Amino acid sequence: MSDATTTGPVLAADGTPLKKSLSKALRRQKIRALMLIAPLLLFVTVTFILPIGDMLFRSVENEIVSNILPRTVVELDSWDSTSGDLPDEAVYAALAADLLIAVENRTHIKVGIRLNYELSGMTSLFKKTGRVVDDFDPDLTFAEQFIDIRDDWGEVETWQTIQMYSSVYTNGYFVSAIDMRKGPDGLERLPDGQRVYITSMIRTLVMTLAITLLCLIIGYPVAWLLANLPMAKANLLMILVLLPFWTSLLVRTSAWKVLLQKQGVINDVLVWIGIISDDSRLAMINNQAGTIITMTHILLPFMILPLYSVMKGIPPTYLRAAKSLGATNWTAFWRVYFPQSVPGIGAGAILVFILSVGYYITPELVGGPSGKFLSNWIAEFVLARPNWGLAAALGAILLGLVMFLYVLYDKIVGIDNVKLG
Amino acid sequence: MKLKNLLIGASVVAVSATTALAQDMTIVSWGGAYSASQQAAYHDPYMAANPGVNIINDESSNEAVAKLRAMAEAGNITWDVVDVVAADAIRLCDEGLAMVIDPATMLAAAPDGTSAADDFGDLMVSECYIPSIVYSTTFGYRTDLVGDTPPTSVCDVFDLVNYPGQRSLEKRPINNMEWALLCDGVAAEDVYDVLETDEGIAQAFAKLDTIKDSVVWWSAGADTPQLLADGEVIMGSTYNGRLFALIEEQGQPVAMLWDAQVYDIDGWIIPAGLSPERQQAALDYIFFATDTQRLADQAKYISYGPARASSAPLVGLHATLGIDMAPHMPTDPANATNTFLYNYAWWADYRDDLDAKFQAWLAQ
């Protein structure tokens, strides 16, 4: 290189500088490579990155209030919400003008539904007001007439809520998602009996970790057997591992219901042998135990298969060598075999953890009141009780949590140490 | 050459497929026995009378609000008629996702000339909604597990002394809060006023606390029938049609407890923003499927009461079992001695708040 700079540029066969022609060739190669992966890239962007980004964006997006009540939002801007006084007549007049248009477009109740997330009663307040908004009497003040429709228009709290949620972007959904509330004097925690999401997050993590650990404890010996048994027996065992894997998730979950319930097979057998009496049957379902048992069973193959493929690659001669050099069975396993199987543990644990942290069907069916995962809330807010903003906020928190754990895992175990096959 | 022929052939097929699609009508409902009853009472006769129409069933009513919202945002509405419960219909109407119905011009009058609006009466709870059935959420109990004096009142659900054992309740505040207050001495007409206050909510939770350890919470309508059949619970709430199937079709030792049954409505909406042709086709179907005779016909297949007053006298025998259906209807006078009407407007306001409180209470 230093040679070239002192004696002038090295030329390629066609006379252009070698550096230029080289970079041209490289660029062409890069473009070709990019074009090769372009369909995949486009596919991933359109079907994965954009929709998820759009969904997550909803956790902060709050255009609805300022879009539908633009005049009110402007007028309300100058009102001091902590003064304890109601806003002045101009605000009420602006609201009347906004509502007239909104009612015509049938959008006024949408604002009510949005504000009802923050203050109960807003849906019917906007609905009721919308019905009579045409009949305002120009001789009376708007304030009087609004309060006449419903007392809530004379409550400072109503106006505080509208003012607080009039900005185009809001942190309100995230605030709700961590069991807090926006008050006029800043954030405040919800009272004791109303905090649900933080508890749910902690429970989700604890149970997911328990499931991962159980899968490892049960799956490790099975994978070892699979890798070390003679071919014929190993194949049979492999089918036994895969058979439930191919069975529908709902079928397996329902089967566990039949097994675990109080009048179920396991309790019946225990009573019949006489281990427990008829009136002290074990509660093994509709609680956390039920969720852990069922999900461990459902996710077990995801632990066994990566473990197996890693163990298959560990030459059995290593163990024999260790033993011939004087190691006990345990030392040979713990010092020679186990370290080599760690990449499989890493892969299996990550798979099981990520899958179970997002599970919601099984916890819903067998979890009972104490087995509700964070994903159950997300599903509920997306499907049953549409509050997509809150669902997006909870989803963003869950995503953040998983990413944080991934980084933590990378720091402790090292992600290069994970091997799927 | 071969490829070219193939392409031509494929495009011909594609073109003919789109013309066939023009007559397809996607009707969304709940699936299972309920969709089957609609197929027999509405879809089949309608297709017989209109050979050009092909009805496609979609079982997404559970997620109707979320899906319609997503379709409206994407600007591509693929559903023509949607079966939803009243609370969802109100919500869809409020959000502008359902079309406003004029009962005078869009619905059939009763055979005696009564206008559709009068025939449906109070059940038209939203201007976008055409009710088709009245169902109720009520209790069933195991006749062999409740002792010699079977329960007669909804408050027996809260009586662990005389009726020990597990009971199943739905995993949401709706209905449970009302029943708890009713059994704690609150008069039926005051229930929602009491429930609006923090003390009232605490009172309802305190009442539910007395049985909390003996409750199995359900989330799917099929749960309670299964739990009753397994003997896992001695009594439980669910939809009355599910209990009918359990008792009459499967012959389980279960009986109905109609006391304080909570009425709810199920019916149709037409999504807003359909093309004029599709809207016209949907309206034509609705006109046919919600007339007096059709509503009475559905009761042959499932034990839900027709929403029109004029249909009630026409309710006959079960199509396959041959039993008289009238005594199994939630609206039958003998069953309806003590009923409770679910307050949609109240729950629309307080559901966000109460659901959070209820779940927090459950998790304690």
CATH superfamily membership of the largest domain in chain B: Periplasmic binding protein-like II
Largest sheet of chain B: 10 strands, mixed
User: In terms of structural class, how would the helical and strand content of chain B be classed?
Assistant: alpha/beta
Average predicted confidence as pLDDT of chain B: 90
What is the 3D shape of chain B? globular
Q: If helices are DSSP runs of H or I spanning 4 or more residues, what is the number of helices of chain B?
A: 14
Report on this model:
The complex is a heterodimer of chains A (421) and B (364). In chain A, β1 and β2 form a beta hairpin. Chain A has helices spanning 2-7, 18-57, 63-68, 70-76, 89-105, 108-116, 122-132, 142-149, 156-164, 172-177, 197-228, 231-246, 249-260, 265-273, 288-312, 316-324, 329-357, 361-366, 374-384, 388-412; strands at 180-183, 186-189. Chain A is mainly α and 421 residues long. The two termini of chain A are 43 Å apart. The longest helix of chain A is centred in the first third of the chain and has 40 residues, at 18-57. Chain A has 20 helices and 2 strands. In chain A, α6 packs antiparallel against α7 (122-132), α11 (197-228) packs antiparallel against α12 and α12 packs antiparallel against α15 (288-312). Chain B is of the alpha/beta class. Chain B folds into 2 domains: 2-134 and 265-328, D-Maltodextrin-Binding Protein, domain 2 (3-Layer(aba) Sandwich); 136-263 and 336-363, 3-Layer(aba) Sandwich (D-Maltodextrin-Binding Protein, domain 2). Helix content of chain B is 41%, strand content 17%. Chain B has 14 helices and 10 strands. Chain B starts with a helix and ends with a helix. Chains A and B meet through α6, α7 and α19 of A and α3 and α14 of B.
In summary, what is this structure?
The complex is a heterodimer of chains A (421) and B (364). By secondary structure, chain A is mainly α.
Secondary-structure map with pairings?
The complex is a heterodimer of chains A (421) and B (364).
Chain A lengths: L1 H6 L10 H40 L5 H6 L1 H7 L12 H17 L2 H9 L5 H11 L9 H8 L6 H9 L7 H6 L2 E4 L2 E4 L7 H32 L2 H16 L2 H12 L4 H9 L14 H25 L3 H9 L4 H29 L3 H6 L7 H11 L3 H25 L9
Antiparallel strand pairs in A: 1-2
Helix pairs in contact in A: 4-5, 6-7, 11-12, 11-15, 11-17, 12-15, 15-17, 16-17, 19-20
Chain B lengths: L1 H20 L2 E5 L3 H18 L4 E5 L5 H11 L6 E5 H9 L8 H4 L9 H5 L9 E13 L24 E4 L5 H7 L8 H5 L2 H12 L5 E4 L4 H8 L4 E5 H10 L4 E16 L6 H14 L2 H7 L6 E2 L32 E3 L2 H20 L1
Helix pairs in contact in B: 2-13, 7-9
